[in-house]
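DATA SHEET
Item: assembly model
Revision: 1
Owner: S.N.
Input lines:
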Amino acid sequence: MESGTQVPSASPGETRPGGRTARTRERVLDAVASLLLEGGYDAVTMDAVAARSGVHRTTVYRRWRDTGGLLADSLDAAREHPWEPPDTGSLLADLVAINRQIVAALTEEPSITRALVAASFRSPTAAQALRSFWEDRYARAAVAVDRAVRRGEAREDIDARHVLIASSAPIFYELVLLRSPVPQDIAERCARVGLAAAAVRS
Amino acid sequence: MESGTQVPSASPGETRPGGRTARTRERVLDAVASLLLEGGYDAVTMDAVAARSGVHRTTVYRRWRDTGGLLADSLDAAREHPWEPPDTGSLLADLVAINRQIVAALTEEPSITRALVAASFRSPTAAQALRSFWEDRYARAAVAVDRAVRRGEAREDIDARHVLIASSAPIFYELVLLRSPVPQDIAERCARVGLAAAAVRS
């Protein structure tokens, strides 16, 4: 569930994959990521992004409008990047693997994910884009729960999103909101809670 | 677990309960709360707090130093306020009751809790105070799990904090980070996950 900022080669309105519009977007979003990591939300001004990316400020204003627009497009670009949950053969191990990706994204230094979460408290546009990004990841991760149902590991009427939230929410809560020191076994322990949640009738 | 900003009648260094120092603190922290609710972190400037509270700015600077100091003292004051988890007779119902308090604190309009969480991303001092506040609440809430152990509802070696986090983290995650619409049954559903977590060997 890491929110990498890699940008796909084509973007909406772009006919030549990897063409000039896509390259402009890549340069701008790279600038957004580096400014955000360096100085947080306040550093991501339109002028700083234009200067860092070498893209004309008129273009930056026309295509992205404001800081919220730049952050939202960064999240949209991350969402366009292919992601599939690991397929290990058991629900518990799948949840552990997903949780390890989340822990890695939240504890890397600097962490673009933590920076985007912080920015979401400054911009409703960024907050909406962050929500869309995470909901997309939960929708894609649901296949891990579907596989568990097919293997007979989980009930047919299980709510995949509930299981994935039970398994991952404590990690976000501890590392992002409580800012706890990271327990060594947090990915495994929270995955076991997710597995227990899978047995709870929703 | 609501983070009300009610201030106790005595504060450190104050000999007369309800005396002048305590009244000054109460006026200043009331001003902090109202400014935070009106305009977020950026509105809580030392000058605005002095003007709103009617306390001399020299006093505000000397006792609270900066915006982070004001927010941290607001959380310390809330932590000094007595709080005990409800005692309903069963672990599940205790967890539901705690979760309902969390949902109420996060969904009231305006929400001082949500505002303090947002501010914690602007000030490391406020972030540390928020963590202390929550850890204090989890420590106090542990008695609900202890009672469950005595009633034979939970294993002796249970980690109370893990159970309380499993029960409450999805609420914070959904309402604060995902900013999801609030499902009607979220307090109950998440409490059942906490109960399931109580059976997980940690």
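QC remark: Chain A has nine helices and no strands.
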